[in-house]
């Protein structure tokens, strides 16, 4: 099943993020609950999950960003693309990205963007196979912490 996350998915999603870059699950706090509630109630913020046999195995986030250029059309930013290590290579992340693409099209976005810190050729090839390219733009990041 491919769907948008609901309130009850928080800790399973946080556990999935251990396959991304997180080292530990954050402490359950009022702040964590508030951020999660804000994310899933925001009409522009889409937490997409792939569920197999009642378990979340893959996910990505798609945020629709309003814009004043390109005919006042928004764009989509994709973040936190992840699949459990034991479930990789089964098309789950591709399905999540395709779901995000459908959301972006429905919202009249003119482009989708994502960044990856991976230098792994298989990761680069995965994104190219999903229709993304690294030739059109140059990304710069300034870490604030």
List the helices and strands and how they pair.
Layout (H helix, E strand, L loop, with lengths): L1 E3 L5 H7 L13 H12 L3 E8 L2 E11 L9 E9 L8 H15 L5 E3 L6 H9 L16
Parallel strand pairs: 4-5
Antiparallel strand pairs: 1-2, 2-3, 3-4
Which structural traits does this protein have?
single chain, alpha+beta, 145 residues, globular, Aminopeptidase, 5-stranded mixed sheet
Give your account of this protein's structure.
There is one protein chain. The protein has 145 residues and is an alpha+beta fold. The chain has a single domain, classed as Gcn5-related N-acetyltransferase (GNAT) (Aminopeptidase, 3-Layer(aba) Sandwich). The chain has four helices and five strands, in the order βααβββαβα. The chain has a five-stranded mixed beta sheet, with helices on both faces. Helix 3 links the parallel strand 4 and strand 5.
The amount of helix comes to 25-40%
Class computed from helices, strands and strand pairing: alpha+beta
Largest sheet: 5 strands, mixed
H/E series: EHHEEEHEH
Q: How much of the polypeptide forms β-strand, as a percent range?
A: 15-25%
Distance between the termini: 37 Å
CATH architecture: 3-Layer(aba) Sandwich
Strand order of the largest sheet: 1-2-3-4-5
What CATH first level would be assigned? Alpha Beta
Overall geometry comes to globular
Low-confidence stretches: none
Nearest-angstrom radius of gyration?
15 Å
């Amino acid at each position: 099943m491919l769907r948008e996350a609901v309130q009850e998915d928080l800790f399973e999603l946080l556990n999935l993020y251990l396959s991304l870059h997180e080292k530990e699950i954050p402490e359950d706090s009022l702040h964590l609950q508030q951020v999660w509630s804000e994310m899933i109630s925001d009409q522009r913020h889409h937490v997409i999950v792939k569920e197999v046999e009642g378990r979340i195995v893959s996910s990505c986030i798609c945020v629709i960003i309003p814009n004043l250029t390109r005919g006042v059309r928004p764009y989509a930013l994709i973040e936190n693309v992840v699949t459990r290590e034991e479930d990789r290579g089964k098309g789950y992340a591709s399905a999540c990205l395709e779901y995000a693409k459908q959301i972006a099209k429905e919202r009249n976005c003119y482009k989708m963007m994502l960044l990856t810190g991976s230098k792994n050729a298989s990761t680069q090839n995965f994104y190219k196979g999903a229709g993304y390219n690294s030739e059109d733009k140059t990304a710069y990041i300034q870490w604030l912490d």
